[in-house]
Amino acid sequence: MGYSKKLRCLLLLVVLLVVTYASGEDPYRFYTWNVTYGDIYPLGVKQQGILINGQFPGPQIESVTNDNLIISVFNSLDESFLISWNGVQQRRNSWQDGMYGTNCPIPPGKNFTYVLQVKDQIGSYFYFPSLAFHKAAGGYGGIKIASRSVIPVPFPPPAGDFTILAGDWYKRNHTDLRAILDGGSGLPFPDGLIINGHGSNAYTFTVDHGKTYRFRISNVGLTTSINFRIQGHKMVLVESYSVLVTADQPPQDYYIVVSTRFTSQVLTATSILHYSNSAKSVSGPPPGGPTTQIDWSLEQARSLRRNLTASGPRPNPQGSYHYGLINTTRTIRLQNSAPIINGKQRYAVNSVSFIPADTPLKLADYFKIPGVFNLGSIPDNPTGGGGYLQTSVMAADFRAYVEIVFENPEDSVQSWHIDGHHFFVVGMDGGQWSSSSRSNYNLRDTISRCTVQVYPKSWSAVYMPLDNVGMWNVRSENWARQYLGQQFYVRVYSPANSWRDEYPIPSVCRVLILVVDWALGKLDCRMRLSLTTCNVVPTNSMRFERHLKSNYDCLKCKIKTHDVELRAWRFTTCVQRGTHFPPFQSHNRTVSTIEFSLRRKRERERDNTSFFQC
Ligand SMILES: *[C@@H]1O[C@H](CO)[C@@H](O)[C@H](O)[C@H]1NC(C)=O
Ligand SMILES: *[C@@H]1O[C@H](CO)[C@@H](O)[C@H](O)[C@H]1NC(C)=O
Ligand SMILES: *[C@@H]1O[C@H](CO)[C@@H](O)[C@H](O)[C@H]1NC(C)=O
Ligand SMILES: *[C@@H]1O[C@H](CO)[C@@H](O)[C@H](O)[C@H]1NC(C)=O
Ligand SMILES: *[C@@H]1O[C@H](CO)[C@@H](O)[C@H](O)[C@H]1NC(C)=O
Ligand SMILES: *[C@@H]1O[C@H](CO)[C@@H](O)[C@H](O)[C@H]1NC(C)=O
Ligand SMILES: *[C@@H]1O[C@H](CO)[C@@H](O)[C@H](O)[C@H]1NC(C)=O
C-alpha cells in the first residue's frame, strides 16, 4: 500500500491517539478505503455496486491475532454509510462495531477512521455495509485472522489460501429492494448466487496436484442459507469457517459449488477448481447438495466437533477450558416471528420488532441522553403476543454466563448472529425446546462461533460468556429480516467504569453540543460547536434576519452547515412590537448529528412555544 506523506502523518497521529489503550507490542496495519459507486456485472447485467478502492468484493484484510487495524473509510457515496465487522469481537470496544446502534453513519463526502484490534481470535470473517440495505450493492470483503506463530495450528501450512465470499444476489439495486421493504413487503426470491462477485464459472482457483489448500468460506448474501461443496474432494473443517482441501484427484478441473438450502427453487453457482496440470475441463452436472432435509442437516451440524487433542488456540470462557462445566446464570429464549404491524410486513424477536433510535444507543447510554431507549424493552422469553415496534435493548451483566435458546417456529431457516461475542453451540433439534432438552447438550467438544443456524421448526441452544462490556447487536443474518426489525441490542454492563473493562469513548465520537448565543441587542447570533460531532466538524454560515409584522418583531437566526445531516436550522424569537428584545439568550443543546437532523422539526416547533408566540 502506498500512502502519501500527508496521509502517513495523519495515520501516525491516529496511532498516537490510540496507543494508550492498544498494546504497544501488537503490530499496526493501516488501510485507506474509498467507498464509491461503480459498474459491476455479477449476474451478467450491469449494475451500480458499492466498490471499495474500485474493487468488488473489497480488499481483504490480512491480519494476525492481536493486530491493530486502523482503517480510514472515505464515503464517496451520496448516502450515509457504515461498515461493520462480522465476527470481529471488538473486545472492550463496541465503539467501533459499525452498527447503527453504536456508531453515527459516515455522511456522504466525509470520512471516519475505525481503530480496532483483532484480539484473542482467529478465523475467517468479513466486513460489510450495515446501513440502508447497502449490503445488496456489495461493499463487503474478507477478513482473515491468522494464528500467531507462537501458537502452532495442528496442520502444516497450506500451499495456498483462498477466500470464498458467496451469497445470493439480486439484479434489482439496493434502493429498489429497500423500497420494497419500506413499502411493507418481504424480499422477493433472489436472482442468483455469486462467488467472489461472479456468477457461474467465472472464477477459477488454481491448485497444484498433491498439495493441500485452505478455503475460507463466508456467506455474504442477503437472505438464503447456502451449501458449499467441491466435486470429488473431501473437506476438513479446521476453523469457523475454513476447510483444508487436498488436490489428490486425477488432474483435471472440478466444480466448486454453492447452492441454496431450504428454498423450493434451488439456486446454484459454480467456480472452477483447476489443477495446474489439468488434462480436462469440468464435466458432467455439478454435484447436487442437500436442500430441505432437516434431520440430515441437524445430524451434520451436530457432527461439527472440536478435536480436543489437537494443538492450537482454544477459547477459555471464564478462565476455564471446559465451557460445559461452567454454571449458566441466566436463560434467554428468543423466538422469531414475522408479524404484520400497521399493515406492513415486519420481523420480530419475542414479539418486538426493532426500530432504530435517532441517536446511536451506545452514545445515548454514554451521554445519558434520556428517552432514547429503555433497558428491558425486550422480554427474556417469547410472549406469544402480537408484534409491536420498539427500540429494544436487553440489560445484561458483565461476566454472566448465559444460555440462549433460539426458537424458530417458522417454515424458513433462520440464522442468528451476536456481535462482540463467541458462543458454544451446545444443542439443536427439531420441535419445541424444553428444559429436558438440556440432557442432550454437547457439553464437551462443540465448536465456538458467532453465528448459528436454526432450522425450520427447530431450536438451537448456545452457551455464551458475556465477557465484553458494550452495546452489542443481536440480529438475524437474513438481511431483510434484520432490516425490518429482527434484531435488538444487548447492553453488557459493568459498574466498574474502568479501562480494564471498556475503552474510553474515541475522541472522534463525540456528540454535538450546539450552543446558539443570541446577542439580541446587537442583532447578532453566534453558534458554537464542540470540536466534533459524531464524525464531522460542520462548517457553518449564519444569517441574522429581522421580520417586522403587524404586532410582533421577530428575529431569526439562520444557520447553514455544509453537513448534509445538519443542513440548516433556524431559531426564531419574537417580542411584541415596540418592546425590547432581551439582551442575551443562549440555546444549548446536546444532540448527535442524526438526532439533530431528525429532531430539527420538532425542536423548531418547541422553540416557538418557549418564546413569545408570533
Ligand atoms: C474516491 O474516488 C472518487 C472516484 O474515483 C474520487 O473522485 C475521490 O477523489 C476519491 N476520494 C478519495 C478520498 O480518495
Ligand atoms: C478524515 O480525513 C482527513 C484528511 O485525510 C483527516 O485529516 C481527518 O482526521 C479524517 N477524519 C477522521 C474522523 O478520520
Ligand atoms: C436503482 O434503480 C432504479 C431503477 O430501477 C433507479 O431509479 C435508481 O437510481 C437506482 N439506484 C441506484 C443507487 O443505483
Ligand atoms: C485430532 O488431533 C490429533 C492431533 O493433531 C490427530 O492425531 C487426530 O487424528 C485428530 N482427530 C481427528 C478425529 O481428526
Ligand atoms: C454449579 O452449581 C452446582 C449446583 O449448584 C454446584 O454444585 C457446582 O459447584 C457449581 N459449579 C461451578 C463450577 O461453580
Ligand atoms: C449547556 O448547558 C448545561 C446545563 O445547562 C451546562 O452544564 C453546559 O456547560 C452548557 N454547555 C455549553 C457548551 O455551554
Ligand atoms: C414556529 O415558527 C416558525 C418560524 O416562524 C414557523 O414557520 C412555524 O410554523 C412555527 N411552528 C409552530 C408550531 O407554530
UniProtKB/TrEMBL annotation:
Q: Has the keyword Signal been applied to this entry? A: yes
Which terms are listed as keywords in the entry? Glycoprotein, Signal
Q: Where is the signal peptide?
A: 1-24
Assigned protein family:
Belongs to the multicopper oxidase family.
**One Pfam family hit:** Cu-oxidase_2
CDD domains in alphabetical order? CuRO_1_AAO_like_1, CuRO_3_AAO_like_1
Q: Where is the Plastocyanin-like domain?
A: 34-148, 161-239, 358-495
The molecule here is called L-ascorbate oxidase
**InterPro entries the record matches:** Cu-oxidase-like_N (IPR011707), Cu-oxidase_2nd (IPR001117), Cu-oxidase_C (IPR011706), Cu-oxidase_fam (IPR045087), Cupredoxin (IPR008972), CuRO_1_AAO-like (IPR034273), CuRO_3_AO-like (IPR034275)
Q: What domain of life is recorded for the organism?
A: Eukaryota
Q: Reply yes or no: does the keyword Glycoprotein apply.
A: yes
Q: Which GO terms describe its molecular function?
A: copper ion binding; oxidoreductase activity
Q: Which SUPFAM superfamilies match?
A: Cupredoxins
